[in-house]
Amino acid sequence: MSILDVKRLSVNYGEVRAADSVSFSLEPGQILGLVGESGSGKSTVALGMLRLLGAPAHISGGEVNFQGQDILRMDDETLRALRWRDISVVPQSALSALNPVLSIGEQFRDTLAPHGAAHLAPEAMERVELDPKHLDSYPHQLSGGMRQRVALALALALSPKLVVMDEPTTALDVVVERQILRRVMALQREQGFAMLFVTHDLSLLMDFATDIGVMYAGRLVELGPASAFKAGGRHPYTQGLRKSIPPALNEDREPYSIPGAPPRADQPPSGCRFHPRCGLATARCASQEPSKDHFSRSGQESVHWASCWELNHAS
């Protein structure tokens, strides 16, 4: 049974639709990676579904069912009780997310005290391999990697069922990024929480995600098991992202970039939104929104789909 069902979620910034009818589900223990270029709508989906976006953002349609309850229709008190205890977020920039004038310990107390769990702060710090003595420190006294571990400790302190990570390692160097991700994965295996991981780095997701969704111009264009993406993916945009991964030192191929640029959110193309950049596009692609083609795996019910008129040629 799914722990989270997002159905046709649409999010607007004023009159501009940044996420358009996005649907996916998460099972307990599943790790779904959401990937796409900057401006594709992936963070808007992740934060919008939890009602964490301020004005001028607003939900313009859809449902977000968490364990049978629609988050978008919850009253404030119910939603407040749900946050941190059952659903938590690790933000993109811990320096911005942490209050610079409060010690780390004070921020733990502010977060955990309403749930009667302020005493868990030292244990939460140790869980992410930080010395509890840093509860007396202020954010500016910690390195970027340490601040991100603090954000992770806050997110996991109450053992939530769902953790949303919004590009949590973007500002970190590669070595620190891998250290933190290894710790995240160890904690995920230990606690069994479901995870939605937002990033622009497809190669990163292929290392640990169980499933991957690809966002383009506000829409989810492909969704399936990570193994399908390691094989190259189905949608032409996915294949472009796959080829854009820098070649390894022993790999004999030229660097590649997808031609053109993503469309403006306030001026999306007609039909398939990727068609102006797609080498397979036809007249139908420019005029009609593509349907979803499904693919089966190991003879089981279809678990992988992509939206493209030219899939037979793209694959």
Give a structural overview.
The chain has a single domain (4-86, 160-314), classed as P-loop containing nucleotide triphosphate hydrolases (Rossmann fold, 3-Layer(aba) Sandwich). The radius of gyration is 20 Å and the shape is globular. 30% of the residues lie in helices and 23% in strands. By secondary structure, it is α/β, with parallel strands linked by helices. The longest helix has 18 residues, at 174-191. The strands form two sheets. It has an eight-stranded mixed beta sheet, with helices on both faces. Helix 5 crosses helix 6.
Helix/strand layout:
Layout: E1 4-13, E2 16-26, E3 31-35, H1 42-48, E4 57-66, E5 69-70, H2 76-82, E6 87-90, H3 94-97, H4 104-112, H5 121-127, H6 144-156, E7 162-166, H7 174-191, E8 194-199, H8 202-208, E9 211-216, E10 219-225, H9 226-230, H10 236-244, H11 283-287, E11 292-295, E12 304-307, H12 311-314
Parallel strand pairs: 3-8, 3-9, 6-7, 7-8
Antiparallel strand pairs: 1-2, 1-4, 4-5, 9-10, 10-12, 11-12
Helix pairs in contact: 5-6, 6-7
How many H/I helical runs?
A: 12
Which consecutive residue ranges, at least 5 long each, have pLDDT under 50? 298-302
Q: In percent, how helical is the residue content?
A: 25-40%
- Give the overall silhouette: globular
Q: What portion of the residues fall into strands of 2 or more residues?
A: 15-25%
Question: Count of DSSP E strands?
Answer: 12
User: Can you tell me the CATH superfamily?
Assistant: P-loop containing nucleotide triphosphate hydrolases
Number of domains: 1
CATH T-level topology: Rossmann fold
Mean pLDDT across residues: 91
The CATH class label is: Alpha Beta
Strand-pairing-aware structural class: alpha/beta
